[in-house]
Amino acid sequence: MIDKIQQNLLNFKLEVTSDCITAKSGLLVFVKLAEEVGLTKLIHCLFGRPGSNRGIRAYDYVMSILLMLIGGGKYLEDIRQI
């Protein structure tokens, strides 16, 4: 069994552990992948800043929905699990 995996593209290490962790921790891989392929820059370029100081940034909105869908969510209420 492989104890450690190190990749050059994504700057973090994966290790086997006996600690209790959430199943949603694997979503970090998708966040890092989105950053590496330039999805975050594209979202910032396509969508402007919020119109008020209380608005939600487009990146936060889009990534929340993407992570919800990737994590198995079906309804907007499932975003609370992330």
Topology:
Layout: E1 4-6, E2 13-15, H1 27-36, H2 39-46, H3 58-70
Antiparallel strand pairs: 1-2
What is this structure, in a nutshell?
This protein has 82 residues and is mainly alpha-helical. The chain has three helices and two strands, in the order E-E-H-H-H.
Note the main sheet: 2 strands, antiparallel
What proportion strand? 5-15%
Helix content: 25-40%
Low-pLDDT sequence parts: none
Quote the distance from N terminus to C terminus: 30 Å
| Structural class designation | mainly alpha
Mean pLDDT: 79
Strand order of the largest sheet: 1-2
Count of strand segments: 2
Overall shape: globular
The Rg value, from CA coordinates, equals 16 Å
| H-E string | EEHHH
Summed up, the helix count is 3
Could you characterize what this model shows?
- This protein is mostly helical.
- Helices cover about 40% and strands about 5% of the residues.
- The protein contains three helices and two strands.
- Strands 1-2 form a two-stranded antiparallel ribbon.
- It is globular.
- The protein starts with a strand and ends in a 12-residue tail after the last helix.
- The model has no long low-confidence stretch (mean pLDDT about 80).
List keywords for this structure.
3 helices, 7% strand, 82 residues, mainly alpha, globular, two-stranded antiparallel ribbon
